[in-house]
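Checklist before submission:
- one chain only
- standard amino acids only
- sequence pasted in full

Submission:
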Amino acid sequence: MDKWKKPRRKFFFISIGIIIFTVVVLNFSGPDRAFPDPIRNLRQVAKKCPIVISDQTITPLNYTKHLLVSAYMDHRVKGFDIRIISIFRRDSIQPLDCLLCCTGLLSSTTTQAKIIEHSDNFGFPFVTTDVLCQIPQNCSATHVSIIKSGDMMLSLPTWLPIRNQKTAGKEKKKIQFDFTVCISNLFESNNVLQYAQTLEMYRLLGVGRVVIYNTSCGQDLNRLLKSYSDEGFVEMVPWPINKHLNSSRGQLFSKHGGDVYYFGQLATLNECIYRSMDRSHYALLHDINEIMMPYKHNSLKPLMDMLQKQHPKVGVFLVENHVYTKKPFEKAKRTPLPEWPGVPGFNILANMYRAEPDRSADFHPYKLIVQPRMVAQTSVHSVLKKVGEQFKIPPQLCHVIHFPLDTPHVQPPGLISMDMRLWDFNKKLIPNVNKVLRKVGLFGSKVPS
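Returned file contents:
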């Protein structure tokens, strides 16, 4: 009898497998089913939709080459209620459906997704993409999932929480910040001194929050940013783009190759706008080595109050970019620069020279100050889709002080002019930098002179 035990056991499991397979097939092939029965039963048993909720800032879309970033409530496109910031492979975009979780109950129907590629892709295979979803009637949506049209959903959906929800019956949430700075990329940097100086400068100019999309950084810089994050001034958003795509370090696919433009910068800028939509009056879109400097006001708020009063229909303000570089001091003279010995990074207070000729007839690169609620899509130097008008801020009122790492230290005399505007803040800036560096143990007791 022992010799029959194994064959019988094997036959038993095969029979059970056939029965399960038959039940699944019959359920999937039933008429007029918006979803297969396994999903319906899952809803009844679990009571709540989310079984798998993505806790990542980049979520692969099952059975595709696409990546989902985050979902936001957005009623500005007629017929749609949700916008999912995504990164899609341009040559493999196929019809998709939206699946909604309605306060713990699975929606009885899917809705067809509207897929909108952003116009700026710079020739790269992957492009920032908006996936728009409609919320079915009688559904109070809390989570959304994307599936391929006609997908039998053999696997559990991965849910994204829907952000920027409006709470019915309660007072409108007060905007928390006047200004949010969006730093689209941080990678392979340990430039502690520059980050400390720049973040403290942002604070002096009235910035209430800085959002940084972090791919990688050095140990010292991570310690500094964690301190800022703990106090609520900096919001660190993990951005592991290199785990999913081959990021380009340049701006043109034809020259630099790669899968996606500059570490997915276009996706992070758009994500930051939606992240700031209910929390900040303005979002400043620029890099960490740039400061939007007002020249007639001591901070950004009086400047923007004046401009908004003069131009009430404007939601996008273009700020001209100017490159600032160093000039070596004569060796016989004592350098006037403060020093932070042992702190990695460069000193932005040394960049006092505008390293440019008169560019009045040339194209001026711009960075952006936007009202998030008036912007649908953005690029780096321009807004792609907006509500309202745009205005170019005269550079004598405000322009970007840009400290590029690769600018030569010495420029021809005819191409430089001294600009000491940054030094107008040094009496507060230097002590504040000292304080934060000491707090994280990166600077000793010696005070810079």
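Reviewer check: The chain has two domains: 51-163, 177-439.
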